[in-house]
Amino acid sequence: MKQSALFYKTSKETPKEETSSNARLLLKAGFLHKEMSGVWSFLPLGLRVLRKIEKIIREEIDAIGGQEILMTVLQPKSLWEETNRWNEGIGDVMYKVKEGEKEIGLGPTHEEMITDIVRKNVKSWQDLPLKLYQIQTKFRKEPRAKSGLLRGREFGMKDLYSFHATEEDFKSYYEQAKKAYSRIFERCGLKAIVTEASGAGFTKDCTHEFQVEAEGGEDWVVRCPAGHFAKNKEVSDLKKGDKCPACSLKLEEVKTIEVGNIFPLGKKYSEQMNAFFTDEEGKKKGIIMGCYGIGTTRVMGAAVEVWHDEKGIIWPEEISPFNVHLILLSGDLKVREISEKIYDDLQGKGLEVLYDDRENKSPGEKLVESDLIGIPLRLVVSDKTVSQDSAEIKERSGKEIELVKFDDLARKISSLVKANVR
Amino acid sequence: MKQSALFYKTSKETPKEETSSNARLLLKAGFLHKEMSGVWSFLPLGLRVLRKIEKIIREEIDAIGGQEILMTVLQPKSLWEETNRWNEGIGDVMYKVKEGEKEIGLGPTHEEMITDIVRKNVKSWQDLPLKLYQIQTKFRKEPRAKSGLLRGREFGMKDLYSFHATEEDFKSYYEQAKKAYSRIFERCGLKAIVTEASGAGFTKDCTHEFQVEAEGGEDWVVRCPAGHFAKNKEVSDLKKGDKCPACSLKLEEVKTIEVGNIFPLGKKYSEQMNAFFTDEEGKKKGIIMGCYGIGTTRVMGAAVEVWHDEKGIIWPEEISPFNVHLILLSGDLKVREISEKIYDDLQGKGLEVLYDDRENKSPGEKLVESDLIGIPLRLVVSDKTVSQDSAEIKERSGKEIELVKFDDLARKISSLVKANVR
């Protein structure tokens, strides 16, 4: 994509009303547009990142047997009355509209809806197990939405639901999902700590959260430095300075962002909503359920909270809006021709290139903006580099600038970019 | 995908409460789940079709310079007050929620929002032209939502907005968009009639609708059989039997479904909302806008209205959930092995194959279900065909069954499927 045509506008000022790094940087670099507090539109750069996060999630969830569906935002009150949640618990934060005499909710979550779909389609043990997921927008009243993409009134979420005939089958899938989650966050450039959290009152088993260490986080995790113990501070009986039950090291407390969680739901919803199946002996039983959530927009916010410096964002490779930022720093026609050729060549190899072809910007402005936008690999072509048949390569996360001969450019970039290069 | 693992359930009964063919067939074949009238969840088969429609739209809109963004569902009242539409016109069908003292709308359309984004980012003629689009869910109160996917309270839409410095530039882009729309509908298997419609009160120019002839339609178009004249009956001064102004043939009236529309917006929104740019001479001017909508979910409904018979759906190739329906009609282990190999081979060639590997279904049930689901190409492997080193090929739209030798299968299928076969 040529930067002269890209719809974005960076800003020199930091948005004063924003307190979180992710909101400040994503606004400043032109990834987002703020509609209301906690309500963000995604501009082209931002949407590219979000789509990459969604792609990673789809690949990993498909790999553990997930089938994608798309449930609706509008949800009938009647379903929520079956679980007594219309006016309680999460019902408190549900936006509700009236149409004629009917009350309709805007989905803050989809357990009721998925259980309804499954009870109408699953009859026997032969229909199980079943894993269904969606990537959908959720809505929650959030009077104090202050943390950019970390806490929204309208936000993206992947929610996976699994349905099982036996507890063993559920448990084995729960462990699979836990591993898939770790892979997802790793690919998104996030080191997630798997922490035990509360059982939400309807299961003896504890649930698990995936927490990313970040200064801008809103949670606290008590953990063993060697990784033997990690609990959300809210539910931990041990605290900072206590000894790890496994290795006796002193526990520490870290500020974190919750990017995902997995829950054993047991038969809570299936029994409340009559989602039964007939087992091999003809007995009617409640379906055993699990649910597995990842905030897609929150992952984007968390990545910025973790990966930035004073100059701007430093995107993890797999979720960067582009693989390479090619920057032309010359008014010379011949130099421009060379950089256009590099642009075409790299794109021909399957790389996503943002090409700063603009004529009306100074070298300084271009480089400052490049650091702000945060594409992991920068390639500069100028009179000076061309005079040496070379381009300058710099990684956004590093300091070293390397002059690479044109002939060697493709090989060099392939070695630096993990993306699918042809 | 193996059919034994696919989440879907066909039904033998036609849903009585549905009057439209698309709702009846899409429910019966397991593509959709009804949440409320006009509110449909997409099950795996249905979501595959919707994603293909979206993919076609993205490709064609990207090709005419569209940049994808994602605006929000929640919209602040203040923006709608700038155009006086909060309580009037489309504001009448807007769902509204309250949070504290604040009123928030659920986007029935996004003109206000896009104009707000553009006025904050576009300053000079150098920032123009600009083409931004999104594929987003829209919400409209619709007390009589009876036509399946044709008329929803929650529905998918692609909306493109273009921004221009001059009328000439706008007009040239409007014609480009018109052509892109025709390509989109053609690729979706729909023959769209471009009809003139009313100017919606704020432009002298007429707007254009894309209407698909269908028994299940809700619109009427007056048209010349030779294609010289086509107007929505609502605005046509000529009627059935009148002579075509161009060729004197008698005009006819046909029932249609509107699948898209394109509107010159002029400066209506830019002037109401102060979306100005500075021209080359330094003069402040209102941006000239156009908007271009396609109902993504409606296109899916329209395709079913046009393409079905008494047995079920007949998907147009590019939007079919799968390219090939491979059906095993045998309990014999060797025959099963052969069909598994065909399944792997076809998938290896990049074809999307639904493979009916189920053991507990009769041949009759499998074939009836295949016709109902409507994948364009059916491949049957049975004891009989294997004894002749062959499989049976049948197109869903035709009657002829052809026995094709295994050796010739790949070539034969490549010749029938336009999809990107490796």
The count of β-strands of chain A is 23
CATH architecture of the largest domain in chain A: 2-Layer Sandwich
Supply the helix-strand structural class of chain A: alpha+beta
The average pLDDT value of chain A, as a whole number, equals 94
Return the domain count of chain A: 2
CATH hierarchy, class of the largest domain in chain A: Alpha Beta
Q: What is the terminal-to-terminal distance of chain A?
A: 18 Å
Q: If you consult CATH, what is the topology of the largest domain in chain A?
A: BirA Bifunctional Protein, domain 2
* Unreliable residue stretches of chain A: none
Number of helices of chain A: 11
| Radius of gyration of chain A over all CA atoms, rounded | 25 Å
User: Any idea what the CATH superfamily of the largest domain in chain A is called?
Assistant: Bira Bifunctional Protein, Domain 2
The quaternary structure here is homodimer
Percent helix of chain A, as a range, is: 25-40%
Q: What portion of residues of chain A belong to β-strands?
A: 25-35%
Using the alpha-carbon principal axes, give the shape of chain A: elongated
Can you summarize the main beta sheet of chain A?
9 strands, mixed
Biggest contact:
A-B, 48 and 48 residues
Structure description:
Two copies of one chain form a homodimer. With 422 residues, chain A is of the alpha+beta class. Chain A has two domains: 21-71 and 110-309, BirA Bifunctional Protein, domain 2, CATH 3.30.930; 322-416, Anticodon-binding domain (Rossmann fold, 3-Layer(aba) Sandwich), CATH 3.40.50. Chain A contains eleven helices and 23 strands. Chain A has helices spanning 21-28, 44-63, 77-82, 111-121, 167-187, 268-272, 296-306, 333-348, 363-373, 383-387, 406-416, and strands spanning 32-36, 39-42, 67-68, 74-76, 96-99, 102-106, 130-139, 154-164, 192-197, 207-213, 219-223, 230-232, 252-266, 276-278, 284-286, 288-295, 308-309, 312-313, 324-329, 353-356, 377-382, 390-395, 401-405. In chain A, strands 3, 7, 8, 9, 10, 11, 12, 13 and 16 form a nine-stranded mixed sheet that branches. In chain A, strands 20-19-21-22-23 form a five-stranded mixed sheet, with helices on both faces. In chain A, helix 2 packs across helix 7 (296-306). The two termini of chain A are 18 Å apart. The interface between A and B is large, with 48 and 48 residues.
